[in-house]
Structures are given as structure tokens and as C-alpha cells.
Design goal:
The chain is an alpha/beta fold. It is built from 15 helices and 20 strands. It folds into two domains: 158 residues, Leucine Aminopeptidase, subunit E, domain 1, CATH 3.40.220.10; 320 residues, Aminopeptidase. The structure holds ligand BES, manganese (II) ion and zinc ion.
Amino acid sequence: MTKIDLLTTDPLKKKTSALILGLFEDEKTPSPLVKAADLALGGEIARMRKNGELRGKAGETTLLPTYGRLPARYLLLAGLGKAESLTSESLRKASGSAASLLRSRNLPDAVTALALGSADPAADTEAVVEGTLLSLYRFENYKSEKAPEGPYLLKSLSVATDRKSEKAAETGRIWGETVSRNTILARDLGNHPANVATPTMIAKTAEDEARKRGITVLAYDREKLERMGLNALVGVAKGSDEPARLIVLEYRPEKPVNDRPFLLVGKTLTFDSGGISLKPADKMELMKGDMSGGAAVLGTILSVADLGLPVHVVAVMPATENMPSGRANKPGDVVTAYNGKTIEIINTDAEGRLILADALSFGIRTYHPALVIDVATLTGAVVVALGGQALGILGNNEELIERTRKMGEETGERGWPLPLFEEYFEQIKSDVADIRNTGSKGGAGTITGAAFLHHFVDETPWVHLDIAGTAWVDSSEPYKPKGNVGMGVRLMTHLLKDLAEHPLAGSSKAKAAGARKARRA
Ligand code: BES
Ligand code: MN
Ligand code: ZN
């Protein structure tokens, strides 16, 4: 991985292969750095701007040789779009585009000034680091011929900051490196084919990674799951020859700030053929990525441990394939879930909610969490509703939903809320069992999926993230190379930190603090 450090001296004076400077669209007066660089280059930047050859549009990148007029061999001008709409996400994207250009020109090192002078140096430094590392990612495990010099041609990047921002920038650098590394781990798991990334392999990866960090791991096998009564999960697994696992990770720091753990649950469906309700062949290969929710919770708990956050976290990953066979679930079958509710399986392709049902109620009953976040490539309907620009947010707690939405905005992993009105629950009532696994009416597929999950969380504050539309991209975006995105690691790691620092209003800690305040008043 590219080595990243901070630079607190003048970036214009630093010897490097390329100096990255930002340009705004419709900018009247250039930044002091651009002005100084322009002066050194004899007014070339101003000329190019005047001619419309340089516009500062988001995504624009221009590489100018400096011919020895600056210590940097090249100047890389990165468009940031309009100044008034600048966000950390603009910096993440611009840094991604810049890193891709550096890589294509075989430039081994660079200095970036994109986070210099920022009002939020921690967030912006983190964004620059993430944009760089995540854009350079390539999945080449199965290529006989790798790209020359391996996947990370950019060897080092120095992020310019000023003395007063140095501490915050250092925090941002560490966060950026940590969440990127674990996002890449999640991407790898999602990009591996399903004959490699099996439940067994994912359990092994989770065990190896967890042990390095003092996280405890359990991986329950089928016999154990049957005995414990996770019949909805076991039912989905019945059709497959790959053994299923329920992977449970627990990170318990010495002095956690939360007295009850935060629970993460991630759909780890290693291949979704649909089962007896078989999917069409077209694009079915993408269903190797149906474990992206599990990969996200794994990447998140690893990040929490790497960062040493004082938060007690439990992650549960129900891992199985969904395959057709003589032993597979059939439409009309009824299973009794871990919490005792009976489920009529109308469509065997609505399998994610079945395995999550057991994982949720098992996690809640076993660990009594303060709150639960589940993440899943649950419904094609969320692709229709929100496309690739936002994940679906649903749940039973308005504050948790709103804080998740806000954190999505801050981290660039954006989501948008959908309602869970009482009336939607009518659509999943069954004639023969307590509930059915698909809506009876059609329509609102993402919502009926979440309504189903609601039956397995009871009163615990809960938020459900449907990432079916955002987990992978079919063409490359600035810091998202084509393939699995590793969606959710960044969002959830930041959200857990935020929830630890500011407990939910309804939680026992917040109540106790409220009571103390009231007494003092
Ligand atoms: N894994 C799919 C959802 C999915 C679709 C993920 C497209 C990524 C891209 C899920 O298991 C599924 O098949 N859902 C069905 C539910 C339906 C049968 C109620 C769907 O969305 O069609
Ligand atoms: Mn399915
Ligand atoms: Zn699925």
C-alpha cells in the first residue's frame, strides 16, 4: 500500500515527482499556492484558464511538466468543482482521479495540497488518503499477468498540512489508512469468486484477521446451529453442499464507554442463485457479491479494533450459499426461526431476510446490545428506488436513522430513509404462518424486506442498511474501481464512534446523564 505521511513545510519547496493542487470551477482569484505555482511557470496556468483549457471542473486532471522551475517535476492540477459545493467527498474524488493519473504515468511519489487550509483537517485529510488508496486498488488475484510493478505503483504520498492542523491531520491520516485497508479487505472478499470465498473461507479470514487484533471469534457449524434453533439460516443452507457458518466476532476493549455492546449484523450470502425460485442467468455471476454486508461488518469491527476505539462491538455474519437442490427450501415451506416466529417461504430468492432474521434475534438475545445495525444486499427494489447514489435506510428509531443519514453525508457513503408505516406490515402476513418472506401485494420491496426484519429486533434500537444498489459498480468511478466497493466500512466505523461519544437519547447511558443533569438543575 502507498506509504502516507504528513508534510508541514511549504509544499512548493518540496522535491517530488508531482505536486497536486486543487482548482475551483469559475474561480476569480486563484489560491495563493496556485498563484505561486503560476508565477514559477511564467503565467501558464492563468493562460490556460483564460483559454478554457483548464476549467476546474470536478474530475478534471491536468499534468504539467515544470521543467525545473519548481522542485516538483510535475504539477498535477485537480478540478474540485464549484467552491461553494466543496465537501470532503469532492476531495476524495479528486484525490482518486489524481492518483489514477499518477499511476498511469508511472510516477512513484507525490505531494498533495488538497487538504491544506481546510476548516476540518481531520475529515479532509482522511478523505484525501481514502481517495488515493481506494482508487489505486486492483483485484488481480486470478490474472496470470499482473500490471507491471504490482498493484500499487504510487509508492508514497505526502499530505501537506499546517502546524496548527497537524494533530487533526494525523488523526485523519490514521483513520484514512485504517478504513481504507479494511475496505480493501471487504472488496477482496466481494471480488473473489464464490468457489473461493465460501462460508468456510470467510470464517477463516475473519478468524485470522480477528486474532491479529485481539478480537474473539466463534464460527458455529450446521449441527450447532440446528441444535440452537437457527432454522431459518439452516433452511437456506440446506440446498447447498458448502457448509454454512454463523461467524460471531466480539471486540471488547478494556474500558468500553458503552455498557451494552453495539451489534452489527451483515448478510454473508456467498452466492445467491435464488434457490428453487431460480434467478435468470443474465448477470447472475454478480451474486458472488451478496456477502457484501458481512464483509462490511467484518471490515468495521476490524477498523474499530485497529483504531483502538473504546467501544464494545459484536459482529454477526450468517454465511451460506443459496442453491437449488433436492434438499433446498421450496416455495410454501414453513420454518420456525430462532425467536419462535414461523415463516412461510413464498420465494426462496428472498433468502437474505431469512438468514438475517436468525442472526438478528440470536445476536440480540445473546448479547443484549444497546442498538443494532444490519447491512445487507437485500433487495433489487432499492436499486430501483435509489440507484447507485444512496443506500436505503430503514429502522425503528428515528434518531438512529437520522444520525445514520447524517454520517452518510459526512463520510460520502450516503443513504436515504424510507418509511416503515404500520400498513406495510399487512403485506407480509401469511395465511398459514406468522409471516411470509415476500410482500403479498408487490411494490415497496425494500420496505417489506425491512418490515420482515423488524419482527426479529423487537424493541432494540435498530437501523437497516440496504446496500444492494451500492455494493458494487459496473463501471469505474473516481475512487471505486469497477467491482466490489467495500461499501459501509467507512460509514459504520464513524457511526460507531459517534454513537459511543453521544449515546442515543433513549439509551440507559443517556438517561443516566439526563437524570444527573436534572438533579443538578
Ligand atoms: N441478493 C438479492 C438482492 C439483490 C438484487 C442484490 C440485485 C444485489 C442486486 C436478494 O436476495 C433477492 O434476491 N431479493 C429479491 C427479493 C424478492 C424475491 C422479494 C429481489 O430483490 O428480487
Ligand atoms: Mn435472493
Ligand atoms: Zn440475496
